[in-house]
Write a structure and sequence with these properties.
This protein is α/β, with parallel strands linked by helices. The chain has helices at residues 16-22, 69-73, 97-107, 122-135, 146-155, 193-204, 221-224, 360-366; strands spanning 5-7, 32-34, 58-60, 83-85, 113-114, 171-178, 181-188, 211-216, 227-228, 246-251, 337-338, 342-343, 346-347, 354-355. Strands 1-2-3-4-5 form a five-stranded parallel sheet, with helices on one face. Strand 4, helix 3 (97-107) and strand 5 form a beta-alpha-beta unit. Helix 3 packs across helix 4 (122-135) and helix 4 packs across helix 5. It is elongated and about 105 Å long.
């Protein structure tokens, strides 16, 4: 009589009535009974409920063979039952997890805790009962349980709810352009820009590293123009791609790599080749290029071989400006280089080529044409 918890799990018990007659009738203080994983098919009838203790408030019939809602509704008659565990039974296999809980709460108004969860709130019970009514609206009356009429008396005959699916489309039909080629494809928006470029590589044979991808929204393009898809990890659904939008695949401009030595691409200056005096100096042409005269290569002329007449040495001012030529002296061409045979201590035969107009005015004051030594 002092037994409060009784565990009969995993025993070959297939008749709950025999348990209630042989055990429960002698356990007036029993509060918890577990028949989990027992092949129980039927629960006690109304006539046998007198043997069930009134203080039995917790019952576990999970993973049993109960396969009828009629058997489940017998639990409403248990006098003190408020905590029920019922999972893995054949009667619940055809429902989703949400539907299972809804059906059990609506059918068992006496149960306050279901499958070890939180206590059933008033709002949850009302939502479950209203969902139970709508579940059987389209069923013939012969298939409706007695609980249906009870709940209609409480909540009324409800109208069915409209099923509105607000989930975005995962596959979008778009157009993809590359040069003169156009492809109509169905793409998944649950992929990144990097993955999308790899897919386009198989279509147009353009490497992702050399690819520029533009997205054209049907409406926003008219206002703001296309949007370049630069961020590799950004998902396509964040662009709000819809049916009818299109993409344009472009290739990045490749830089031309200059080959050869720096001298081959440098400017070529100098006097004309003696053997080809009619040609002008070339700009940006290599001496070894096909345009040059291979039979008459350019010859560097020594300053000592200059045929220009000697002139006095000139100096340039620090400012870089050339002084005017004194009266009585003939101005020489600035492009002619001349040797100088004079130094500060007398005559010398040393030839030093300098520009004619380099400090010409000041040099003429120091070294006049007459020999005033």
């Amino acid at each position: 009589n002092n037994l409060t918890h009784l565990y009969l799990s995993c025993n070959p018990i297939n008749d709950f009535c025999s348990v209630s007659l042989n055990f429960l009738s002698n356990c007036s203080s029993l509060e918890f009974l577990s028949l989990a994983e027992c092949p129980v098919v039927q629960l006690p009838t109304v006539d046998d409920l007198s043997n069930v203790p009134t203080c039995l408030h917790s019952l576990n019939v999970s993973t049993t063979k109960i396969n009828s809602w009629t058997e489940v509704e017998k639990l409403r008659k248990f006098p003190g039952l408020i905590d029920l565990r019922i999972q893995g039974c054949p009667i619940l296999d055809e429902y989703t997890a949400h539907e299972k809980r809804m059906m059990l709460i609506a059918r068992l108004p006496n149960v306050k805790v279901l499958n070890g969860g939180d206590q059933i709130t008033t709002t949850e019970r009302e939502d479950s009962e209203r969902a139970f009514i709508r579940h059987f609206l389209d069923k013939p009356e012969i298939q409706r349980p007695s609980r249906f009429d009870e709940l209609v008396d409480v909540h009324g005959l409800l109208d069915p709810l409209v099923n509105i699916d607000l989930s975005p489309d995962m596959n979008i039909k778009v157009s993809i352009y590359h040069k003169d080629e156009c492809r109509e494809e169905s793409i998944s928006v649950m992929q990144s820009v990097k993955q999308f470029k790899q897919l386009l590589q198989g279509y147009f044979n353009v490497a992702p590293a050399n690819m520029r991808l533009w997205y054209y929204d049907q409406e926003m393009t008219k206002i703001a123009g296309p949007e370049e898809m630069k961020f590799a990890n950004k998902e396509l659904y964040t662009y709000n791609v819809i049916d009818g939008d299109y993409f344009v695949v472009d290739e990045k401009a490749q830089l031309r790599v200059l080959t050869g030595s720096p001298r081959a691409n440098s400017m070529v200056f100098g006097s004309l080749s003696p053997g080809n005096s009619s040609r002008k100096s070339s700009f940006g042409t290599s001496p070894t290029s096909p345009s040059s005269n291979s039979r008459n290569p350019r010859i560097r002329r020594k300053s000592s071989d200059s045929s220009a007449p000697p002139n006095p040495r000139t100096r340039r001012k620090s400012s870089g400006r050339t002084s005017p030529t004194p009266l009585g002296r003939k101005a020489s061409s600035p492009s002619v280089k001349t040797p100088v045979a004079r130094n500060l201590f007398g005559k010398s035969k040393v030839r030093n080529p300098v520009d004619q107009h380099y400090g010409e005015f000041f040099h003429s004051k120091v070294f006049p044409d007459g020999n005033n030594e």
